[in-house]
Amino acid sequence: MSTIVQGMTSIFELLFKLASMVGLPYYGVAIILFTIIVKILLYPLTWKQMVSMRKLTELQPKMQELQRKYGNNKEKLNQKMMELYTKEKVNPYAGCLPLLIQLPILYAIYQTLFRFPYRNDSTIWFLGFDITKAYGFNFDYHLLLPIIAGVTTYLMSKISTATNPNANTSKNAKPGTPEATAQQTQRFMLIIMPFFMAYIVASLPSGLGIYIITMNIVSIFQTVYINKKLAAEKQETEAAQ
User: How remote is the C-alpha of 81 from its chain's centroid?
Assistant: First the structure.
């Protein structure tokens, strides 16, 4: 058993014991608890990302000025844009970071479920799903998991876009610029990611589906909370001025 599997199994065993203490002796619950812990640990990074994305809105006039000045020189324009981002401490690709961070975690969970030492134990069953088993796209009860994963992925992306003040102002970004690239990536994720996540959930152990769905639900609430908090801080700052 690899170090990754041993470490993740130990974490699941600990969380399983905690879940058992409240009458929920299922490793599916352990996965839910693990997901919530991951989101809590990543909260500071999520906060910084959303602050960075909001700063992009404030930089729109400067970006448009650079586009007018260097519009005929793509290389120079990109250089000036990156200089502006560096000066203002803004990351135009911040929206992609959560997914990149989750990929190693998804891999670790997959490896753990694939080699889970309790595969024959009743505790691996949760809400009618064997967390170590992949159910595919059969038209039965188990199809609910990939459907819910796809729907929650779409809702998460949609809410993130709708509550991002930079979403509307960057629509007219000049093609080839960093902000235009970031906007295209956002649109791509909104359309493709729900189907991709549904495929992942159907093709891999259902425990991954539980992780993805929980991650999406927590992310939705976290996004709404952070945006409300940022809006309140902005109002307080404007009132103080």
Answer: 26
Q: Where are the alpha helices (H) located in 90-137, listed in sequence order?
A: 97-114
Phi/psi of residue 130, nearest 5 degrees: -85, 110
Q: Is pLDDT above 70 for 214?
A: yes
As given in the structure block, the two tokens for residue 208 are 């991954």
What 3-state class would DSSP assign to 188? helix
Residue count of the chain: 241
Confidence bin at 183 (pLDDT 50/70/90): low
The pLDDT assigned to 186 comes to 67
CA gap 127, 156 in Å, rounded: 23
CB atoms < 10 A from the CB of 218, how many?
Answer: 17
pLDDT in tens, 108-129: 999 999 889 888 889 999 999 9
Going through the chain in order, the beta strands assigned E by DSSP cover: 125-126, 129-130
Q: Would you say 135 and 206 are in contact if contact means Cβ atoms under 8 Å apart?
A: yes
What is the CB neighbour count within 10 angstroms for residue 40?
A: 11
Cβ atoms 213, 152 nearer than 8 A: yes
SS (H, E, C) 1-25: CCHHHHHHHHHHHHHHHHHHHCCCC
Q: Is the pLDDT of residue 1 over 80?
A: no
CA distances from 202 to 187, 199, 206, 227 (A): 24, 5, 7, 32
DSSP 8-state assignment for residue 71: T
Distances (CA, A) of 99 to 24, 153, 186, 212: 30, 12, 12, 11
At 190, which helix (H) or strand (E)? helix 178-203
